Amino acid sequence: MRRTGIKILIFLILIITLVSATVACNKDKVKVSFLIDGQVYYSAETSSGSSLGALPAAPTMNGYRFDGWYLDKDVWTQPFTETTKVIDDISVYAHFLIDTSPNETCRVTFDSRGGSTVGAVTLTKGAALTLPAPPTRTGYDFAGWYYDLTFETQFLSGTAIVRDITLYAKWNTLAAENYFNAENGVLVSLTEAGKGLSEITLPLKLNGSDITAVGNGLFENQENLTSVTIPMGYVSIGDNAFKGCKALEKVNFSNSIASIGVSAFEGCEALLNVQLPTALEKVSQNSFKDCKNLKNVTWTNVTEIGDGAFYNANSLRTVNIPESVVKIGNDAFRNAYAAESLVLREGIRSIGEYAFYNCRKISSVTIPNSVESIGKSAFYNIWAAKSVTVGTSVTEIADNAFREARACENLVINGEVSSIG
Question: What's the predicted TM-score (pTM) here?
Fold first, then answer.
């Protein structure tokens, strides 16, 4: 019994001795944490007072080269190496330098976002970029180059370039006063800045006053103009307002416009489609003359189509006259060569001279019963028309009204016509 107690006591003494030794050993271990931008890249342990003997693999960062591990962050005067002795738990910090290795270059591309072109720049990696002359854009102020399209961080001249990047131009829209002069609610002239406009929404106010009209000849022969929006509140467009704007492709009319002046869009060769305002009752003389690429016209409440309104609209495919129209003027659709379909509705009373002259592809012509007069040469050279029907109200057909209707196989005159010219 006594011997057994002695054995147990000896065993306990051995256990206590082992635990004490282990604790003592653990207290001698210290930890080294290797940090990059506050994040642990690697950690290692060693005995207190010893060195690590080896360091982790050198980290990499795009555009930079690794300079070593340091004990003093942001000062970088106390390097930590594989031979540095460690007493307590510590953190060491990675230090990087801009990589200026020879033969490595970076390319900076400039996206001017609608402004004038700015050429890309190639420079040695790590070199400072001096920004080129800023781009220009009609109607806008240049507000700097930015790293992305959120326009939160501006790029500053003199910044070192360590990788290929694209910079984006930021623009601020100029106030309407920079483009227009106005009198009594009418836009009467363009400033020098206004003369270079390509796309514009016309202002509703200028210098605090309401604007309701486009003046005569305002944009005449402004060949840079490609798109214009005329907002609700405008009531008229003056004579020759957009005459000769050869690049004008798109016009957005508000339905408040009740008047479009003589030759307002004459010679707008790039114009493809026109949707006329619902308030408009008359398409004035030569309004869309020489709009050679105009393909479609949409209208609702027009009552009169003026002389030469669509003269030389060579690309019109369909001439669809709305029910509201009472009068079609002289030369209204003269030389609409491409038109294959002509729809004339009840309500029309007169068709002017040469109104559809040289509409060579129209397949048939039906004159409504409401039409009372057909002008001289109104349908001269409708070569492809196989049938012509004249309504009951026509009493006289003027000279050459249907001359050169070469394909006509069926001519029907329903009224009591006293003379055919």
Answer: 0.64
